[in-house]
Known about the structure:
Layout: E1 4-7, E2 10-13, E3 18-24, E4 33-39, E5 46-51, E6 60-62, E7 70-75, E8 80-85, E9 94-101, E10 108-109, E11 113-118
Parallel strand pairs: 2-11
Antiparallel strand pairs: 1-3, 3-8, 4-5, 4-9, 5-6, 7-8, 9-10, 9-11
Amino acid sequence: QVQLVESGGGLVQAGGSLRLSCAASGRTFSSYRMGWFRQAPGKEREFVAQISRSGAYTYTDYADFVKGRFTISRDNAKNTVYLQMNSLKPEDTAVYYCTGGRTTAWDYWGQGTQVTVSS
Length: 119
């Protein structure tokens, strides 16, 4: 069982930056694909970014609406995945969820952290 705990959310003005962190329990963190999703009020949860499990190559993927603004990274020594968010827009306001999986499915989810971007 893996537990994921997000932190780093908050209130920021448009154009500002935040870095979200997701700390994972367990000793097999490096074998998990990790990702971030978000859910705005009245909307469905949507994919934001993912990073492959550790190996010879690290693969990242982003939703079109965050490309060039957000960066996902991981530190296996700290069992932590990050989401650096720059040039934030009011439409980025949402609860951001960390997730992880060993296959194509997302097996584990955090409780979420609120990000609010004011105009």
